[in-house]
Specification:
347 residues, alpha+beta, three-stranded mixed beta sheet, three-stranded antiparallel beta sheet, 10 helices, extended
Amino acid sequence: MMGLELLTAEKDAAIIRDRQLRTVRLNAKKGRPHDRLPYGYRRVYDEFTGVLIRQEVHPEHSRGWMNMTLRQVLRNPTIAGLRVYRGEVIGEADWPAILPREKWERVNRALEDRSRRHQHFDSGNPSHPKWLLSHIVKCAFCLRPMVRIPSGDPRADGSRRNNYTCAHPGCRKVSVSIDPTDAYVVGALLGWLTKPESLAVIGEPGNDWMATVRQVEEQMAALRKRLDEAAEEYSAANITLAMLASIEQRVNPQIEELARAATPPVSDEGVLALIQAEDVEEAWERLDLIEQRRLIKMLLEVRVGKATQMGGKFDSTRIKVSPRYAPQPSYQWQTHDANETLQVDNP
């Protein structure tokens, strides 16, 4: 009997779980909230019956903002009146938006602009970086930043070779010599900055770009309107759920593609000064290490793969350099003052 009771209890638990998950999915499709209220909202209950009347924006005289949560709140689709299910926006929510969707999208594009990221180091600070690519270059296996670690075997003169090494426990598969890696990455960057195609991407974010952004926003609004109309048609039983899903599968990728096209180009003064210099290489050498690191981190994604053979010979094919503001697939990278085509993985 005990075994039968256990099986019955297990079956009942599975049924309850399925019902709860089904309720969560249905509430998500209807735009209803789930779990705790997001920051900035409150529930309003009837003072006599205690029944929930509505959910509304929290009044301005509430406890206020905290610096550590500001970015997290601004990135949250909830404040734009959007319902998120399993990390993806699935439609409009049934609560009022704190920010209009168009403004929320513009704010997030600004937050994603890498040229806004700055970090100040006092030259006397012991944490002042001493290596060009330390914590910038990444391991191709675990995708974590690599750090400078001296090799164990000294040279004939007693000095030790410095390497960028993946020091993450459980990986530690990649190590590469610092000097040739720095030279290779700098050559990739300077070669890119001297190309007209690159200047068109990062050097001229003027009126034409703003016109492009406005056009993209209009196209995205039209596609969202199409999704809303399809949802209304489904609610009115004019189309089936399969037809609605088919429309969403076609339209959502188009919206995502337009959102990527609306990513603003870099308009950084440091980059502009570098590409406008008569001698790019000389201008690069005049920059201090902090500025060089900032520009590389802003413009490039650098990953290092595992060596294919033992030995001290530098293998440049291990290094994969990708522009964060990617050119067209047909674009050919070359090192500065060389005809060697680089190994590039466009993101």
